[in-house]
Amino acid sequence: MRYPGLTYIGSNTFSALYGLHDTIIDQKACGLQHLYVDTYEKDLIHTATSVVKKDDVLYYADRVKPKVGHPKRHHAKVSEVIDYAIMKDHFVYDGFEKIDQVAAHETYIRFQTTIMNTSNEKQQFSVGALAITQLKTTSKWNYQDGKLELDVDGYPLGIKTDQQKTYAYIVEDAPSGFMYRGFQSMLFNEHRTDASKGMTKTPLASIICSDIILDQGESYTFNWMLSVKAQNSYDFSKGFDDVKTYWNHYLSKINPDMIMTEEVKVKLVALKGALLGGLLPADLTGHYFANGHVAFYSRDALMGARAFLYAHLFDDFMSIIQFFLKCELKENGEYFQRYRFDQTGDEGANNDVFKQIDFIGYFASIFKDYYLAKGELLCDFETLDRILSILLQTEKKNGLYGPEGGVNEGVYGPAFITSTNMFICGGLKAALDMFAIFQMKDLKDKWMKHYENLHQAIEATYGQEDYYYYGYVDYHHDVIKRYDTPQLFGTSFHYPLTDKYRASYHTLKTHAAYYTYGIGYSEQEYHDGPWIFNTAAAAETAYVLGYEKDYLNFMDFMKAHQNGYGMLPEAIDAQLEARPLINPLMWANAEFVCAAYIRYVWKVRNDA
Questions:
Q1: CATH architecture of the domain with residue range 7-247
Q2: Would you list the DSSP string of 275-333?
Q3: Is the bond preceding 403 in cis, omega lying within 30 degrees of 0?
Q4: Every domain range in the chain assigned CATH 2.70.98.40
Q5: Does this model's pTM top 0.85?
Q6: Helix H or strand E segment including 418
Q7: pLDDT tens per residue, range 368-390
Q8: What fold is seen in the domain 253-607?
């Protein structure tokens, strides 16, 4: 099952979303969708992609736009990622074929479009490098000698092709976001120019073009670059070799102790592309933005950080942790659920729930895992104790901490959730191990009873149906007798592996399964269907419990449900397997990486 290709591309310097077959949530952009430089403060680009014109028809991304009529969708024959970092789409049309390739380097993005004349006659084409600046930005431009220099809200960008003879269309486009004028200019040959400069407070559409004539069977390659820094020269001689060298160097540092190496490397490159200044976003498609901006979810970021940790990409891992530790706190010392680029709390995404305390368990768990992997402390023990001490002022019901939203973000209202408490319990266990290693008796004595009491309370939620119940809510006293598969993350976060936990795994594997080896979420309509990160959690649990065949089946299920660029969606429709939901999602891809490393993780923990 190959879903429409959409992925993250970027480097240490910038981050972007890219895809020719799917669009961001507002369904208005294609190709490069978003561009952030240095930080996630400002979105600079609405759309950037190659455009081909033939016989008064435009071909761009998966669209075919005649002079009259709505753009038709034309899917690629092949959509894939090569050498872990180069997105490739091969389109076959009547009379010609088009191959688009795009990849990121440290300060620029390479675009390449190859056209092949498959007709029996000579044909003329126009090929262009299209870029449209984002809404609510101010753009200054200067186009001359085939190079476009842009200043978008103070950020210098540059666009250059490898063509000797070029011309351009440069026009102001729609402030509504439904861009049309750049396409119209090329389609109807309006506003053509050889030199242009100016300023606008509306989106600016630019297309740098060249005309070519191809004989029967002849092909032609059009290269261009989008630079995210001021740049005087553009080197087209290397093709994508410099990109391959750049990413092979990055991947040469990773921990090799994994399965599905190809898939892991692709996802690590994409996750690196999304990581900017320590902010690992929950999402770049727009679905999980907060107040229109990219959001740092405390939970998702700590979950995602583990992918870098287990891959031994320690600098990237630590950048996320440092971002988290510098985030604004609530008056009671808790972390917000979501943060802006400047580390100020920014609640109000599509699922604004009450609060989430599960991050306490994640942080304490990776505190220990980092020490086991690197032999160094993640932070001082005072910081760890401060985060754990949030529990001392947190309400309890039947021994469980809450009320809050948990991983499933409050589907039944403010709750004392078993899965959240499993993560906290596992985190306490990991912290106690560290206190013992460093002979910190006072801290061990302080937290031991809290751990023991919490573990007992969790085990008390186990029901006669052989699974742990969801937990309790604050508006009545009955236990909620519904499953909650995030409990399967318990193994990843040091929760004790009891006989009850093993039996619960079998119950969830049976009753929460979709399409055989896809694992669902909770028994709630919104959660109907397999969710990738829960499927990855099931894979991790299966391995730890000794069910190697189940482990590989879960991993194969996820591999089979990637998109064309090797990325995973958040979930899959329960009624239509061909329909992905939130494609791609950061955490889903990071959790796949974690699951691929579970053998290494478990070995290191057991050796310790």
A1: Distorted Sandwich (2.70)
A2: -BTTB--S-SSSTT-BTTB--EEHHHHHHHHHHHHHTT-HHHHHHHHHHHHTS-B-TTS
A3: yes
A4: 7-247
A5: yes
A6: helix 418-437
A7: 999 999 999 999 999 999 999 99
A8: Glycosyltransferase (1.50.10)
